[in-house]
Design brief:
With about 170 residues, the protein is mainly alpha-helical. It has a domain of about 110 residues. It is about 60% helix and about 5% strand. It has three helices and two strands, in the order H-H-E-E-H. Strands 1-2 form a two-stranded antiparallel ribbon. Strand 1 and strand 2 form a beta hairpin. Helix 1 packs antiparallel against helix 2. The longest helix is centred in the middle third of the chain and has 72 residues. The two termini are about 30 Å apart.
């Protein structure tokens, strides 16, 4: 069985054949044979190759979605385990407080209460002096900018661009 051409090889071969036809250096029999080859590429080989690509794309998209779902599931599981561990640690701390102990030796483990480092609690809606605020760079609202440009507003250095994508149906 002959090796099948890659999509790149097919399009490259097609472009080279088109260049030969455009050059006009072929006799009519050669032109007819070349036209027949080009028709074969466009009518049979290219659609087969495109179908193969589309099948691979669909498989990759399905695998991506499955991984996304699995990542979300694992994230939820991780959060549940972390919450459970935090809850058990808090119960242990409360038990030590209830019995008036700072530390307890539990065989393999030693459990002890310790003071947390100082933290700041900020009341809701309080205005802090600027010295305690961290300056942050402004963020561009691209949706609002696009809407303004669509309405005809001129914004220096900005323009509406349109890319191209492939839709597989």
């Amino acid at each position: 069985m002959a090796k099948s051409l890659t999509l790149y090889e097919l399009t490259d071969t097609y472009a080279a054949a088109q260049d030969l036809l455009a050059a006009g250096d072929l006799d009519p029999a050669q032109e007819a044979e070349l036209e027949k080859c080009l028709t074969g590429i466009l009518d049979r080989l290219l659609p087969e190759k495109v179908e193969g690509y589309c099948r691979i794309v669909r498989n990759l998209e399905a695998a991506e979605e499955a991984l996304k779902v699995e990542a979300e599931r694992l994230t939820l599981r991780k959060r549940a385990l972390a919450n459970r561990a935090a809850g058990l640690k808090e119960r242990l701390r409360l038990a030590l407080v209830a019995v008036g102990r700072e530390k307890i030796d539990a065989g393999t483990f030693t459990v002890g209460r310790q003071a947390s480092p100082p933290a700041v609690a900020i009341a809701e809606g309080v205005a802090l002096p600027d010295e305690f605020l961290i300056p942050q760079a402004p963020t561009v609202d691209k949706r609002a900018l696009l809407a303004a440009l669509k309405e005809g507003r001129k914004v220096d250095g900005c323009e509406i661009t349109r890319g191209e994508s492939l839709r597989i149906r």
